[in-house]
Amino acid sequence: MDARALEDLAVDIAREAGALARRRRGEGVAIAATKSALADIVTEADREVELLIRDRIAQARPDDGFLGEESGAERGASGLTWVVDPIDGTVNYAYGIPHYAVSIAVVDGEPDPQRWEAVAAAVFSPAVDEMFRATAGGGAWLGDARLAVSEPSDAGALLATGFGYDPATHAGDLARLGRIMPVARDIRRAGAASLDLAYVAAGRLDGYVERGLQPWDHAAGALLVAEAGGVVTGMPGERPGRTMTIAASSSLHSRLTERVFHES
Ligand code: IPD
Question: Ligand 1 centre and the CA of 129: distance in Å?
Answer without folding.
Answer: 20
